[in-house]
Batch of 3 targets.
Target 1
Amino acid sequence: MKCLSCEQLSFQIICKECQNTLLIPSFHKRELEHDFFNYSFYSFSEIEEFITSKYYFHGDRVFNILASLSFKKFAQGFEFDELVYSIGIDEHTRHEFSQTAILSRYLKSKNIKPLFNQLKATNIIKYAGHDLEFRKKNRRKFKTNLTNKKIILVDDLVTTGATILEAKKILESKNNEVLFSLTLADAKI
Ligand SMILES: [Zn+2]
C-alpha cells in the first residue's frame, strides 16, 4: 500500500520513515480546571491529516499506529501504587471502530486496565465545526455504572476540555477519582 503521508510504498499505512520523523510524540500538559490536567502527545496541526482518518475506513490502522507510538509508551513508563482504569470518552463507533477504544486499549500495562463501554453519551451530537456555546447547550449527558475506581480518561482530541470535564464530573458523582485525562492531540498547542 501507499503511505498516507508521503505516498511511498509501505507495509503499513504510515511508513516507518514518517513514523520516525513526523510522529515523534512530545508530552504536553494543560490545566483544564484547578489541579486537573490533560496530557497529550501531539499538537492537532501536526497530526490533523491522521486524526481526521477516523472518519474513514482505514482509520483503525492509523489509530493503532498513533496509539502504539504514544499511549503504549506512556503506559510502559506509568507507575502507580494501585490499579488504575482507563476509560474512553465517546466510544460509539464510526466505521466499525472506536478511536478512543483503540487508544485506551494501548494503555494496558502493569498498573492500567482498560475498561470499555463504561461511559455512554446519551446525546450523540456532532461537535465538529461548532463553537463552545453550542457545546455548552448540547452536553453529552454521560451515564456510567462505574463506582469507586481510580480512572484515566481517554479521548483523541482536547479542544475546550468541556467534554472531558463533563465526563469527569459524572464519574466523580459515583465516587470515582479521575487522576487526569490523556489525549492524542491538543487543539490549543
Ligand atoms: Zn511515509
Note: The chain has a mean pLDDT of 89.
Target 2
Amino acid sequence: MIKLDNPVYTARESFNLCGEGIGSVDFKNRFNVGIDNLCQMEDTYCTEAIAGNLFAIASLPENTNDDFIVAEGITKKEFITLYEYYLRNKEKPGRAIYDLLMVSANEKCPYCGGIGRPKNLDHFLPKAIFPQFSIIPLNLIPSCRDCNMDGKGKSIASVANEQIIHPYLDKDIFFNEQWISAQIKSYDPCSIEYYASPPYNWILTDKERVKTHFHDFELSKRYSIQAAEELSILVYQRKRIMKNMLPVEFRAHLLSFVEAPIFINHWKKIMYHCLSNDEKFCGYAF
Ligand SMILES: [Zn+2]
C-alpha cells in the first residue's frame, strides 16, 4: 500500500549483470543465447500487472522437478540459482541491483504500510513456481519479515479478487485513496479496530483486492498493536495535561494528526481520523 517508484534497473540490465557473474561456460552460453527472449518476459509481466491480471500468468505445479526447462533452455533450478547466487550474492555484480532495490524502500515495507522495515527481497510472484521472473526487478519487492511470503507457501491468486497490491505497478487508487478505516471498540480501556473499507464507487474486483491485501498481511491485528501504544499515551495525556480541554479543543488537537503529511492509509492517520470523528471519545471524561 506504499507506492514504490519502478526499479532503476531494467530486466535486461539485471540479466546482463547477473550473467557477468556466471562461472559455468555451458550455463553462460545458454543464458546469453536466450537473453533477448528472456527480456521480453518483463513486457508481459508489466502489461499484466498494470491490468491487474498477474493471476492469469500460469505457474508451474508446486512439485515441478528442478531440471524442468522453463524458458530458453534454462531450468527451474538455474532460474532460482540466478537469484540466489548471481543477484543476492554479495560477491557478484548482480548484488548492485539487490542493494539498490532495498534502499529504494526508504526503510518502509510497502506491503504493510511501513510498520515493518524491509529485511530482504520478496518475489511478488514466488520464484518456486514462477522461476522465469526470479531476477526481473519489477518482481522483487523489499519486504519486512512479517510480510515476506516468498517460500512461506503463500496462496497464489487464482482469480483477480485474490491479488494483493503490487507496490510498483498497481492502480493509483490503491495508494491515493483511503480504503482503511477504524472504529472504537471500547472506551475504558480505550481500544480501536481496523478494517478494510474501500470506497463505494470502486469496482468490485478492486474492493475485494484491498480486502485480500488487508487480510493476507494481517493488518487488522498488526495495526491494532501499533495503535494500542499510541492510544495509551494519548489517554494518559488527556487525563493530565489536556484534562481542561473542551471537547472541541481536544478534537482540533486530534485533527492536527489527521492532517500530518503521511500517506493516506497510514495506521496513525486512520486512528486519529477515527478518534476525531467520535463525539463520545472527544468528550469522554477519562
Ligand atoms: Zn511489511
Note: The first helix runs from residue 11 to 21.
Target 3
Amino acid sequence: MQKSSPPGRAIAVINLKGGVGKTTLAVNLAAGLANRSDGTRNYSVLLVDLDSQASATSYMLGETPLDPENNIQHILAQWMAGKQPVVLPENITGRTSARNPVFNGTWPNLHLLQAFPGLREIEYGAYIKFASKSDVLERKKHYSILQFVLENARQDYDYIIFDCPPNYNWIAAGAVQMADDLIVPVIPDFLSTNGLRDLVLTVSEDIAMLSPRSGKRIRAIALMLWESNNNVYSQYIRDLREEQLTRLRNTSPHIKELLRDCEIWDGLTRRVLVQKLVQTYRAIVSEDAGQVSRSELDKMVDSILEWKRPEAENVEERG
Ligand SMILES: Nc1ncnc2c1ncn2[C@@H]1O[C@H](COP(=O)(O)OP(=O)(O)O)[C@@H](O)[C@H]1O
Ligand SMILES: [Mg+2]
C-alpha cells in the first residue's frame, strides 16, 4: 500500500480522564477516515493502541486472538532490552491487511498496532529508567522509540491515530510529542471542566518545553456521551463555547497558541446503538449503524479532512 507524499498525519485522541469516549472516538474516526477516498483510493489509516487496557484492540479485533509480535509492547520491550535495531511488526509498514483483520477485514486499508497485556509493566519499567522529568534531552531520548515507530508509519499511512491511556504516563506524553494534532474528547459536565483544564495545562507545559515551535495544537474538543434533551449538558456546552475556552486562552500565551482555532465538535451523543456497536465489534460507519451517529461521525471526519498542516517554524521539531 504505497502512498504518495506528504507523509501521514498523526493525531492523538487524548484526555487524562477515563470513560470520556476516547477509544470510541479514536477507533471510529480511524474507520471513518478509512471509509473515505481522496478521489482515487481510500485513505490508509493506522490506529495505534497506546492504552495498556487495550480497549481499542478488543473493540477492533473482536474474537480474533492477539498477535504476540504485532503490538506496541513487543516493540517497546525490544527497545528497553537494548536490542538494535528494533524490529517493527510488518503491519506498520502497511503490508499485512490479511493478517490484521480489524472489523472482520471490512476495510483492508485500516490497520491496528495492538496493545498487549504486558504493556503496563513496560510503562512502569520505562518510567523508572527515565524518571528525570525536567531534563529535555532525557525526555526526548525517552520518546525516540515512538518517533521511530511513527516515522515508519508515516511512510505508509495517510492518517495515524493514537488512542491514549487515561493518564499522563510517558507513552501518553510521547504521543503528544509525536502528534501533529490533538483531539480532546470531553463529557460536557461539571467534572470535565477540571479535566479539560488539567489536560490543557499539562500538555501546554510539555509542548512549551519540548517542541515549542512545532505548531502542534489542540484542533478540536469533541463533546461525547451527552444528550441533546438534557439541560445540564446544553448549559455546559454554552459555557464552554462562550466562556471557558476564552478563560483558558487567557491563562498564558502558550495556551492561547495551543487553543488557536480550536473547534468545538458536537461529537457523538449518547446512543444505546453506539454501545451495542462497540460490544459487537462494529464501527459507526458499518452499513447497519444508526443514521444519527453516522452523521455525527461524518461531520468530524469532514473537519479532519479539511485541516491544513500545522505551520511548523522548524520542520525537525514537528515530531
Ligand atoms: N456515543 C456513545 N453512546 C453510548 N455509549 C458510548 C458512546 N461513546 C462511548 N460509549 C461507551 O462509554 C464507555 C466509555 O467509552 P470509551 O470510549 O471506552 O472511553 P475511554 O476510552 O475514554 O475510557 C464505553 O463503554 C463505551 O462503549
Ligand atoms: Mg480508552
Note: The domain at 9-305 is CATH 3.40.50.300 (Rossmann fold).
